[in-house]
Structure formats: C-alpha cells, structure tokens
Amino acid sequence: MPNLLHLDASARRTSISRELSGVFADAWRAEHPDGGYVYRDLAAEPVPFIGEAWTELCDLVLARLLPAGPGSIDLDRLPELVNSPAQQAAWAIVEPLLREVRAADVVLIGTPMYNYSIPAALKAWLDQITFPRMSLAPSRFVVTSARGGAYSPGAPKAIYDYQERYLRDFFAGHFAVEDTAFVHAELANSRQDPGLAHLRDQHDASYAAALEAARRLGKEY
Ligand SMILES: Cc1cc2nc3c(=O)[nH]c(=O)nc-3n(C[C@H](O)[C@H](O)[C@H](O)COP(=O)(O)O)c2cc1C
C-alpha cells in the first residue's frame, strides 16, 4: 500500500501552489484508493525552528552513526542518541516528522517562491528532518509551485531561481533523491500588478499547463 505525504507551505489560504498540490493529491488518491495519506500545513501549523538540542543530536550522528566508507546512516539508530531532557524535547518534534517522510513513497510539496527561494515554513521542516548522510530514496518527490515572475529557461530572471535549483540540489545531495519533479505556475503577479498586465495571457497558459501537469503526475505516481 503506497503512502503519500502532502505538505503545503503558502502563507495564503487561497493559493495557486495549494491548488496544484491538491490537484495532484486528488488524482493520486483516486489511483490509490487504499493508499495512505498524510497532510501537513506547514504555514498554518508551523514546525518550530531547530534549537541547540537539535544540533547536539546532529553532532552525535556525526560522532557515532557515520559509516566508515560511503553509504548512509541508519536512521533507526537515531533514538539511541537521545539523552538529556532538552534532546528528548527536540526528538519529540523530529520523530513524527521523520516517521512521516520515511513512510512516504511520494512526498508532495506545494510551495510558493518567496524572495527567489522557499518560504521559511518549508525550510524549518527541512532543517528538522535532515541529518548528515541520510537517504530518503527510493521515495519520489514532487514540487508544485507558484511564482510571481517567470524563471523558466531563457527568461531574463532564470538565474534567480533559487527555489527549484535549491530543492532539486538539496534532495539529490542530502536525500539521494535524483528525480524530483517540478510543476510551476509562473507570472502570478500579472493578476495584481498593472505593470505586468500584458503578461496575463502567459500566466493563464502557465497556470492551465501546471494544473494539467499536476493531474497527470498524480495519476502516474
Ligand atoms: C513574501 C513574498 C515574497 C515573494 N517573492 C517572490 C519572488 O522573489 N519572486 C517571484 O517571482 N514572486 C514572488 N512572490 C510572489 C509569489 O510567488 C506569488 O504570489 C505566488 O502566487 C505565491 O504562491 P501561492 O499562490 O501558492 O501563495 C512573493 C510573494 C510573497 C508573499
């Protein structure tokens, strides 16, 4: 029975990235009626920032769990590192988040671009669940995103895309997940900014294509 972990990170309730992730999730759940489904709204119920006790756990991973050669740490051994009350409190936050993501065959992330990158709410989740030399493969990751501008290859601002590039590189480098899929609805600011009104048609086309891609991927995954 496959499991889907669905995260949303937009600060807006009515949000394009939420709509796209919802379309993917609906299609996926229709294809997997017996599949498991866990939903987390990282904006409405934020994951706390990591604190000092979390960094102690990280140092203990480095000291005790790294394999001698290449390869990943054994995540099942994390609980044996937890000792002080502060570390136990830190672990109480990490443990359910890590359990959810490890159980997921598909991790679906609905996220806006904020300031050329990802919202702090999503970064806080990543900081909590990431330990040195860990692997989340063979999970598959799908990101549905909305951006105010255009960052596709060839766009003048393409080099400022630290959202897709960051997530793609992070999942590959830290989680050994190489094939993250991205669905972007671009030029969303043309809805509000009169200076971008001439790009509204391009936004509408990007949005429609993203909805279709999210539906198709939800069926495929
Ligand atoms: C705090 C904030 C920062 C933003 N920064 C950018 C940005 O750097 N580049 C961009 O293209 N759009 C930016 N936007 C626009 C959003 O990406 C756009 O509104 C998108 O639709 C938000 O996703 P959502 O509809 O899922 O909330 C920003 C919006 C907010 C609220």
Overall description:
The protein is α/β, with parallel strands linked by helices and 221 residues long. The protein contains six helices and five strands. The chain has helices at residues 16-31, 52-64, 85-103, 120-129, 164-175, 200-220, and strands spanning 3-8, 36-41, 106-112, 140-146, 181-185. A five-stranded parallel beta sheet has the order 2-1-3-4-5, sandwiched between helices. Helix 4 links the parallel strand 3 and strand 4 (140-146). Helix 1 (16-31) packs parallel to helix 6 (200-220) and helix 2 packs across helix 3 (85-103). It is globular and about 60 Å long. The two termini are 13 Å apart. The model has no long low-confidence stretch (mean pLDDT 97). The structure holds flavin mononucleotide (FMN). The site of flavin mononucleotide (FMN) has 17 residues, from helix 1.
Topology, number of strands = 5
CA-based gyration radius:
18 Å
The sequence of SSEs as H and E is: EHEHHEHEHEH
Sheet-strand content, in percent, reads: 5-15%
Per-chain topology:
Blueprint: E1 3-8, H1 16-31, E2 36-41, H2 52-64, H3 85-103, E3 106-112, H4 120-129, E4 140-146, H5 164-175, E5 181-185, H6 200-220
The chain binds flavin mononucleotide (FMN).
Flavin mononucleotide binds next to helix 1.
